[in-house]
Amino acid sequence: MKVVIIGAVAGGTSAAAKIRRNDENAEIKIFDMDYDISYSGCGLPYYIGEEIRDRDDLVPRNAEFFKKKYNVDVFRRHEVLKIITSYKFLIVKNLENNEIFTEKYDKLVIATGAKPIVPNIPGAEKSNVFYLRNVLQADKIKEYILAHKPKSAVIVGTGFIGLEMTENLKNLGIEVTMVERLNQVTPGLDSDMAVYVEKYLKGKNINVILDDSVVELNGYGLINQVVLQSGKVLNTDFVIMSIGVKPNVEIAKEAGIELGAKGAIKVNTKMMTNIENVYACGDCAESYSVITKKSFYRPLGSTANKMGRIAGDQLSGGNLEFRGILGTGIFKIFDMTVAQTGLTEREALNEGFEPVVCHNIKPDKPTYYNGKEMVIKAVADKKTGKLLGVQIVGYTGVDKRIDVFVTAITFGARVEDLFHLDLAYAPPFSTTKDPVMYTGMILDNAINRDRKLITPNELHKLVESRNDVTVIDARICKQFEESHVDNAINIPHDEVRGKVDEFDKEKPIVTYCNKGITGNAVQNILINHGCKKVYNISGGHKNYKTQNK
Question: What is the C-alpha to C-alpha distance for residues 171 and 52, in angstroms, rounded to an integer?
Fold first, then answer.
């Protein structure tokens, strides 16, 4: 059996390694256009920022490695020009000498990855306008910084790469302005979580421009001005475009290979395309959601490796199958960590769920052990009680919690199940009731025990829609005087029981404290004394204040 693989990064090399483990006799060839193979794309911003100093740490494996260890022939700087599926051969060009030749295959794996989205604006082709997708592009950015000693940069886009580059350029002493066409940073988050990231960025003296887009890049030879749709003009020494990627599927499409709804190659759970003996994996292939079972495109190295292993296993006699993904992501920006998995609130609404939302603000470990607060937004389905998605913004322990939530969602956990998890506890690592458990308790109370939550945005809508809403601040008087929700009345927790009879028990009452716990305690008192419509502000006054920046 002769297997040819197009692409030698995560998906392609994973497929090759798995084929060889299953079949010692298979002939395996890989063609790739790039100079580098099997590199860590996610590490590129940290290489530019000199946190990773040795280039070889990003490219630990070369063609010689794959030949020696796996008996796989890797041909760098070879572009596959055409796939002839009817006769099972490829037309290949050697980019070093321009030689064109054909290569037959018995089975083909397409792992062509993704490529940066290049905007159609004047100046986007200039040499100091950079994209970051491979090691060569990272080299060019590093070389430019060393040669020109830039003092300022504009980063277009506030996704993972844009934010990671912001941190690394800032650490090099370069002033950064971020431009985002949406009205929030981090498009993958809900807006009420993105605001925490935005506030943090501004606290780090990052200039953040939202709800605006680049229309022109000006300069003679090199770009020195970025013109925005609003009319603003930003002076800059260079530009990094980080507005996303798209699947690299042109040769597959030309060959009659079917694309999915998201524009990536459509595959089944075995990584098979619509063409017999042709497989696809990695950033060029479509995934599907564990929750909705619908097609899904979220290019990540972790998913590419998984897909590659499955493709390699299937075509060499194995039975591994793809089970979908949640679209889990995590990144750091300075000392802040941001993580997300599953559906956001807006995605849950769009998918027809009735989402119940909580904002849980808790330290990752006891405050006496230098615990630092994290904000957990969790989304659950009211009808089934199942957890649908989680977003976390914090400083330490975020990775641990998001992975617990990923596991729970993957195995269909309901919110009440989270409290019963036997999570590891000791003061250096966690609180006695871990933030994961607290999240489950809050949502369980909301869904199953009529302890309704209300977000700051929902509160505004409620107050606007009727004039008989009572808002109770259950904190001590000093905290109330410093800052409080508009039109709230201050009744500290220990005074509430004596004033219950003063309220109309048929009209809506909203309670809150600093982060939610005492607000819930007051909510319980009111409900137990016959009040019919009692809500507790999700995340308390801390969340309310952040949302009303």
Answer: 13
Give the confidence band of 310 by pLDDT, cuts at 50, 70, 90: very high
Amino acid at 220: Y
Are residues 134 and 39 in contact, defined by beta-carbon separation less than 8 angstroms?
yes
**pLDDT over 90 percentage in the chain:** 91
| Number of neighbouring beta carbons within 10 Å of residue 140 | 16
What are the start-end ranges of the H helices in 176-300?
Answer: 191-203, 250-254
Ramachandran angles phi, psi of 62, nearest 5°: -120, -175
What are the tokens at 251?
């040769």
β 100-104/214-218 pair status: unpaired
| Inter-residue contact 228 to 179 (CB < 8 Å) | yes
Residues 411 and 407: their CA atoms lie apart, in Å, by: 6
Q: Could you tell me which residues are beta bridge partners of residue 175? A: 152
Would you name the residues annotated as active-site residues? 42
pLDDT in tens, 127-165: 999 999 888 999 999 999 999 999 999 999 999 899 999
Q: Identify the bridge partners of residue 75 per DSSP, sorted by sequence position.
A: 31
In order of start, what are the domains of the chain with their CATH numbers? Answer: 2-41+55-114+246-315 (3.50.50.60), 129-243 (3.50.50.60), 330-448 (3.50.50.60), 452-547 (3.40.250.10)
**Structure tokens, 234:** 């930003």
| φ/ψ of residue 70, rounded to 5 | -115, -5
Distances in whole angstroms, Cα of residue 412 to Cα of each of 29, 343, 360, 387, 509: 40, 14, 21, 7, 34
Token pair of 17, please?
């390694």
Per the prediction, the chain carries an average pLDDT of: 95
